[in-house]
Design brief:
Blueprint lengths: L1 H28 L9 H24 L5 H25 L7 H25 L2 H14 L2 E4 L2 E4 L1 H10 L6 H14 L4 E5 L7 H14 L5 E5 L3 H12 L5 H11 L11 H18 L6 H8 L6 H18 L5 H13 L1 H9 L1 H6 L5 H10 L4 H7 L11 H5 L6 H4 L1 H4 L9 H11 L6 H11 L2 H11 L5 H18 L11 H16 L1 H6 L8 H12 L3 H14 L2 H5 L3 H14 L2 H14 L2 H4 L13 H14 L2 H11 L4 H4 L4 H34 L7 H13 L6 H38 L1
Parallel strand pairs: 3-4
Antiparallel strand pairs: 1-2
Helix pairs in contact: 1-2, 1-3, 1-4, 2-3, 3-4, 5-7, 8-9, 9-10, 11-13, 13-14, 14-15, 22-23, 24-26, 25-26, 26-28, 28-29, 28-31, 29-31, 34-37, 34-38, 37-39
């Protein structure tokens, strides 16, 4: 109590002195409030206050040591009085109300409050104890426990010892500290957190230090740690075979009162995770299936800290890629990164398995599924290929799923790989369409330079699935215009076929949603009639309305001049559409002028399809029959003799216009033999199995054309074989009917007997 009384005396002396001087200055040099205050008077008061603050600080830190008690408390009191005066001036300077006695009472109240706070602090931390602890720390500072062992800095030890001659005996100093601590009424708490985040050597060092030099009375250590991590670390120090049980036993002796955190209800963790996640998703205007997310993560959320870490990752990385990934897949991957980092690394390292499936990766599949059973449902949802050999769903690419090679790396890079087109760029292109497409071509060309035509057109095709019919119609028109502008520059059609494919994809979607818009589009303008017809028929050829419309378009414009103005491959496709839709009479009248006015090499090229392989006998037969169906064999034989025969390997690498006449002569040479072979094979199969076997419809059509229009001297054997084919079919059919009737008769008798 005596010490406390002395402190109060000095604190009040200092406070009163500052209060009196400051208030006197204000009253002497400052006019009455009613007269107002000039800017210079206000600056004077602020200057005096600043000088008082600096004086208090200098007095506290620079006073002679012999005045240490006065320095400690008088100047501290001065500072408290200054603080109180400052508060009063701040509230009343320029705004004084009431009489002087009232203002002095306010100052005294503020000063007393500040002093009370200081008294409480000075009571908790005893001055003498603080000084002793500082001396003890200086004497111990040259000694440190760091790997690989005890380290002593002799220079620091010598310096600190010389500076502390009065306290050279560390044991004596320690005894003084012990006495002071025993007399303390307020216990000292030392908190050590995150020890489990240190490396093994550092963890061991901390526990050694606490044990060796920090066993003071009235001092309690509160240590927050992961028991498993610390036990493993201590086991490496105290166990030869690194047994965790030894480390745990040591920890149990060291920790006197273990307090284990209670387990958190998993359902509450899931609810917490979703509530916060929902706010983030709403902010970025995206959504996922809540029930599916909760179902997949149920029981897998381990701690509130991991929930916070997961949400932090989502907050950081989702804004970077939310338009270029499938949100649910991305959230699952971040969840795995937080809760199961080893699985995250395995997904990245074994991308072939997760993208391609089990086939060829059986060992990896077993290893991963055995180690991460609890994540099997989530992995199956993210990577369907690991549980099924089903062909890849085109919708996966459209939705930007992680299970597609086109998008897999984006999930790990948190940005698009080089050369890829972002969703933001695609959105910019569609937005330009609303401006009547004036900037579309410039934007398209610019994006194409940084990626590729194929990549850009693929992204546009995928994005069309979520666009309105109006946007598709606008896109189709600008694509067709671009196709028209570029077509004359191509030596052989669309180099990558990507623009043609994109036009077909957009047309297909638009026809399903709004057929009228497709018909009103620029698809069927005369300038692009060939390309449009091919596109239209290839997509919707099974629709009767489409067939009728396409037939009318084709019949109105079909001519050799039209074919010759276009790329050979496009012309061949257009000719094939015309051939399928026209009647026999229209076909013959269409090619009749060719026979009269053109060379054989000029028109025969349109009967073939460039993508076909001339080594396929069935394709050769169809090609040959298509030609002889429209052009008399008597006209063709002289041309065949003029061209001559070649082995397929001798012309396969020639240019299209050069090799197609050879393909026809090769077909003439082999088609009859191939037809006989097919019919013979089916006859033998029927005789052997005693079952009816039918040739495909298109083969029967070709056989009929061959028998009607083929070279007569090669048809005798074929005609006999076709007749035998029908005869065997009829006999087996009749035999099967008789057997069926006999069976039913026997079955009926058995039923009667029963």
């Amino acid at each position: 109590m005596k010490v406390l009384s002395n402190r109060l005396i000095f604190i009040y002396l200092g406070s009163a002195l500052v209060t009196f001087i400051s208030f006197l200055v204000i009253r002497i040099f400052i006019q009455e409030p009613s007269q107002g205050y000039s800017i210079y008077e206000k600056q004077l008061v602020w200057t005096l206050l600043i000088i008082a603050i600096v004086a208090a600080l200098l007095g506290y830190y620079k006073a002679p040591k012999r005045l240490s008690l006065l320095r400690k408390y008088v100047f501290l009191g001065w500072a408290c009085g200054l603080a109180a005066n400052y508060y009063s001036v701040k509230n009343h300077y320029g705004y004084f109300t009431g009489n002087t006695l009232s203002n002095l009472f306010d100052l005294l109240m503020y000063t007393t409050l500040a002093i009370a706070i200081v008294v409480i602090i000075s009571t908790v931390l005893d001055h003498d104890l603080t000084q002793l602890l500082k001396m003890y720390a200086r004497l111990l500072s040259p000694v440190s426990l760091r790997p690989p062992g005890l380290i002593i800095n002799f220079k620091d030890m010598l310096f600190n010892t010389i500076q502390n001659k009065e306290n050279q005996d560390i044991n004596e100093l320690r005894d003084k500290i012990l006495d002071q601590l025993k007399s303390q009424t307020v216990p000292i708490m030392v908190f050590l957190d995150d020890i489990d985040r240190l490396d093994n050597k550092e963890i061991q060092t901390v526990f050694k230090l606490v044990r060796m030099i920090a066993d003071f009375p009235n001092v309690t250590y509160v240590i927050a740690l992961d028991e498993q991590v610390i036990s493993s670390s201590l086991a490496q120090l105290y166990s030869k075979d690194y047994a965790k049980e030894v480390g745990r036993a040591y920890l149990e002796k060291f920790i006197q009162v273990p307090i284990y955190l209670p387990r958190v209800d998993k359902s509450l963790l899931n609810e917490l995770c979703w509530d916060k996640l929902g706010e983030i998703l709403q902010f970025y205007s995206t959504s996922i299936d809540r029930e599916l997310f909760v179902l997949m993560t149920e029981g897998l959320v381990s701690t509130p800290r991991n929930v916070k870490r997961f949400l932090n990752l989502v907050n950081i990385f989702l804004p970077l890629v939310h338009k270029d990934v499938y949100t649910l897949d991305f959230l699952f991957l971040l969840f795995i990164k937080v809760e199961k980092p080893t699985l995250f690394e395995e997904i990245f390292r074994h991308s072939d398995f997760f993208l391609s499936g089990i086939k060829g990766n059986e060992n990896i599949a077993k290893e991963i599924t055995d180690k991460h059973v609890e994540y099997s449902r989530m992995l199956e949802l993210m990577f369907p290929a690991i549980v099924s050999d089903q062909s890849k769903n085109p919708r996966w690419s459209i939705d930007k799923r992680i299970c597609t090679l086109d998008h897999f790396w984006t999930y790990f890079m948190y940005s698009l790989p080089d050369g890829k087109v972002s969703q933001a760029q695609v959105d910019t292109l569609f937005n330009s369409l609303l401006n009547e497409g004036h900037t579309f071509h410039e934007l398209y060309t610019g994006i194409q330079r940084t990626s590729s035509v194929k990549e850009l057109n693929q992204k546009l095709s995928w994005d069309c699935f979520r666009r309105t019919a109006k946007e598709k119609r606008l896109l189709l028109d600008v694509l067709l215009t671009r196709y028209d502008d570029l077509y004359p520059l191509w030596e052989s059609g669309d180099p990558s076929l990507s623009l043609s494919s994109l036009i077909m994809d957009v047309s297909r979607l638009l026809w399903k949603e709004a057929p009228d818009l497709l018909l009103q589009s620029g698809l069927f303008r005369p300038r692009r009639i060939m390309t449009s017809t091919i596109t239209f028929y290839n997509i919707f050829g099974n629709d009767s309305t489409v067939k009728s419309l396409t037939k009318e378009l084709v019949s109105n414009v079909f001519s050799y001049d039209l074919l010759s103005r276009h790329d050979l491959e496009d012309a061949q496709q257009f000719f094939n559409v015309w051939y399928q839709l026209s009647t026999d009479e229209d076909k013959k009248s269409g090619v009749e002028p060719w026979i009269k006015d053109l060379e054989f090499n000029q028109y025969i090229k349109y009967f073939w399809m460039e993508k076909l392989d001339p080594r396929e006998d069935e394709l050769l037969l169809s090609f040959y029959c298509k030609v002889i169906h429209l052009i008399s064999i008597n006209v063709l034989v002289p041309e065949i003799e003029r061209i001559g025969f070649r082995n397929v390997n001798q012309f396969i690498n020639l240019s299209p216009e050069q090799k197609i006449p050879y393909i026809f002569t090769y077909a003439h040479q082999n088609s009859y033999k191939h037809a006989r072979s097919m019919v013979t094979k089916v006859i033998n199969q029927m005789l052997h199995e005693q079952q009816v076997v039918s040739l495909k419809n298109h083969i029967m059509v070709n056989l009929e054309i061959l028998l009607q229009h083929g070279e007569i001297n090669k048809l005798a054997d074929l005609a006999n074989l076709v007749e035998e084919y029908h005869t065997v079919q009829a006999e087996i059919t009749e035999q099967n009917v008789e057997q069926q009737e006999a069976y039913e008769e026997v079955l009926g008798q058995l039923r009667e007997n029963e």
